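Thought: the user wants the 3D structure for the chain below. I'll pass the sequence to the structure tool as-is, report back what it returns, then summarize two notable features.
Action: structure_tool
Action Input:
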Amino acid sequence: MGSCLAELGHRLTAAKRWSFSSKSSDPNSQSKSTNESLSRHDDPHQVCQIQDSPFYVFRASGQGHVDVVARLLNEDESRLNGKDAKGFTCLHHAATRARIKVIDLLLSRGADINVVDNEGNTPLHLASEKSKQEVVKHLLVNGADGNIRNNKQWAAIHVATLHNNADIIKELAQFPKLVDVNLGGLNGNTALHLAATYNFPEACKALLESGSNIKQTCSNGFFAIHLAAKNASSRALEQLLVEGDKLGYSHDQLLASNDREGNTPLHAAVNSGDLASVKVCLKYEARIDVKQNDKATAFHLAASQGTFSIVKAMFEQHKAEKPDDYLQILHSRDALEMTPLHRAAMFDHPQVVRYLVEEGSDVNAQDCEQRSPLLLAAVRCGVSSIRVLLSSSVNVCVKDSEHRNLLHFMVMYSGSVLTDAELDTICAVPPFSLNFSPFLIYRLL
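Observation:
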């Protein structure tokens, strides 16, 4: 108990000394020259001041105290490239806070301008992230390497893009020998790929004006325009089309470009389910009948995806553009000989099924296995689509390549979800020439 009180008394005494020393009655004492010695070692009971810390050089660098930094470097030159817990050097701190004079001092003393922190970031990375345009220019003038990639595989141009900072992008691009605007980062993504992915139209514009290659693919085989469409980045998508046109790439060229799987930007936009991106493609006259590797058109994908507003927008524009042969898109076949109606029925999109039927789709068209939309709906238990198709002029007697008709599939997959009255209506349609009675099997279940 006595030892604890003694220790407490010692700490209180030390605290009082610190308080007294920090609140000097001399009003001039707080403005003493920074050249005065910052270390106190004579009194063993003297509390350590922040200025005595070996890390104070980092704080002084960030605060722009040139004289203090110079003094501390004179006392210990190893502090020049020393690092704090985050791996920041004095130069990182100065760059982050835009302390140009400190940067000049550090560089004059031989600081490594391309030194990296624990995350692999150089001072140029940090200046780009913090939007310190003057620092970015100053570092590049002094020879900073703008193509160094951090632990995430991003260079300064990628970092500026991820923050949608057009001014920093333009500044970096002023030094083409030090900064490659088409440098690939993670998965081969260039800055333009990132701007497209994250829907940054300002960054897209700045990059394309600075020499970014709109036709460069990433490691996954995507152009920037595909990534914009794929990620529902409608504003970036439109910016790419506008700026690409200025660079000599027509809208038709860009919208007809294929990725590794043969997808056009419209295919990608449909897959994203984003109506805004689809409308941008349609606005610039993307063709809905262009086929990908499996021969599916973008309209097939829309029918599969099932967003009615997208299906309707695509078909209405196609109908307006080709009033004489617009029905051809409804009858187009993919690699499995499926029409868009097959796709809609298979994935049970009743609203889309009804719309396609009303617009003239062939309800009895058969795919490569002789399955009609009705049979496919039955296979996938698409009861809602079955009911829509039954209300049309559908042939309920059609058989697939294995001689199975609707009732076979209803028994195997969907029989329990239709009413007896609905099944009775189906069975009343002659002729049902079967090797066995699926309806009887259903009744026995």
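Final Answer: Structure generated. Residues 328-445 form a domain with the Serine Threonine Protein Phosphatase 5, Tetratricopeptide repeat fold (CATH 1.25.40.20). The CA atoms of residues 232 and 274 lie 6 Å apart.
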